[in-house]
Amino acid sequence: MRLLRWVVPFLAAIGVGLVIPMQPGSRVTSDRSRLALETFLGDESAGFAKAERPWRFSFPSDYGGHPDFRSELWYITGFLEDEAGKKFGVQLVFFRFGLRSSATNRPSAWGTNQIFFARFALTDVAAGRSYAQERFSRVALDLSGMDASPVRVWVEDWSLEAAEGRNGAHFQLRAGDRDLGIELALQSVKPPVLEGEADLFESSPGGVAFHFYLISRLAASGALRLGGAAHRVRGEAWLDRAWGAVPMSQGQIALNRFALQLGDGRDLLCLQLRRRDGSGTPVPSCLLIRADGATRFFRRREIDLEPRAHRHSNLDGTSYPLRWSLELPAVGLELVINPLLDVLELDQATRAWSGAVEVSGRSGGVPIAGRGHVELSGYGGS
User: Is residue 36 situated within a structural domain?
Assistant: First the structure.
């Protein structure tokens, strides 16, 4: 099996649908999200390029857009600390979706064949609160779009800029507003892990493939605004990139995703496919990215990934497995994964728990710590 054929449920969980600004424990209205999905994910895929063969990656151009493909995702998560040691989790998503592959003559300057969605989410760990904002805009009148040289993606005044330098990738992020926002510089610590190295090419049996790469460790620095107060922050981030065609995530299969950065410089991407009704045995796979960027793939029989404690949803009592143990005996890793906050549930087009985590445990018998981001989708019957 390819690495969990994971892209379809992952993108459905994080990149599609509208997120309403939230507070912990509040219910997020999802009717308009589901209506938007039904409206935009119709069968209009003819004419778009398809991910049918391995991609020849080239940077910095592949940091930017691929308009010949129907959809595209830039997905960044990070773990930040300010000068006083306060901890923050951050998430920034840009998602482009093509409505039709060919231009349509429209008399209005507002007419477009593409739309952009953006989400910015921030977790204030000390305050026990989470915040989210969204932007949803057409590619018209410079409201949103993509530039190739220099590389830039934007939705209104939120943007991601990218360049390639002597030390690798460099990104500039801006999102939010006066009371809640970020301005971050990201510098790659490791080279990109490409789809061939990660064995990520095929998304589902007979389904639609995505081209994909990730940068599992970027050094982050910049400023964060929260409630009118400014914070200078530093930390680490993770970037996922994908482009292809996004079908609806249907059927009984759902995904749990763990993106972990360990204190010894290694990173882990672990994915667990599971049935929504709880039947059968969940199927895990893990990709270990060493400090020098080399990778090693682990299949299900080499992994022990189990939930150890659950928390019930404030919305309807749905049980989420928020504390996990992860063991990779072949490399002596024994890890425990704990959320920084329990109340990070999104109820949108696809319901999910999404948030920052801390990692503790042992590597070869030596204590080890880390941090990361976890997505738990397919719970609550949605």
Answer: yes
